[in-house]
Amino acid sequence: MQNPTLQHPQLIDLMRMAYSAEKAAAFAYQGHAGSVKDKEAKIRIKQIEDDEWGHRAEVLELMKQYGVSVSRWYEFRFYVVGKMISGSCYIIGWFMPYYFAGRLESGNVCEYFRMKQYFNSLGIHAHDKMLYDMGIKEKEHEIYFLEQIKNKKLLPFFEKIFAWGDKKSLNNIDLDKKYPVEESDVYCKMDKK
Ligand SMILES: [Fe+2]
Ligand SMILES: [Fe+2]
Predict the structure, then answer these.
(1) How far is the CA of 105 from the centre of ligand 2 (A)?
(2) Confidence (pTM)
(3) How far does residue 87's CA lie from ligand 1's centre (Å)?
(4) How far apart are CA 113 and CA 108, in angstroms?
């Protein structure tokens, strides 16, 4: 069921996946917010959950515009993933939900910059700002989670095993030295997927 107007199978797949993965993230944050005791943390994580629902709505709008259908397989798969992570937050302690949320966000950042690059490769620039903002928002999420665990003793150990932490990121965005949307093509080019 491919849209004839959007000749880019990778872009179509990426939109379908991002749409469903946002749901998994939102579910995961429900469990995370529920499992932490700190009130401020609960509020911040709930905000992040709302951001993910917002992203999901924005991706759906984009899909509708190009006649891209929702993948029932991704919807099922990410439903299960999200609910499993959500439940696990109550049993794996304090550190790991923060760590894996940060690591996941770190990878998600590039999904939106890559989506922008795919659209651009088709000569479509109408969604640049929206996709840029979504990518930057994921970066802010990553930084929030990293800030919470930055000084924890477990971090260097996890960083070594899972290749994300204070020194290693899965993207090359630096919020302190942000490129404007027109020059943001340098983002996520290191990943040739
Ligand atoms: Fe998101
Ligand atoms: Fe996020």
Answers:
(1) 5
(2) 0.91
(3) 20
(4) 9
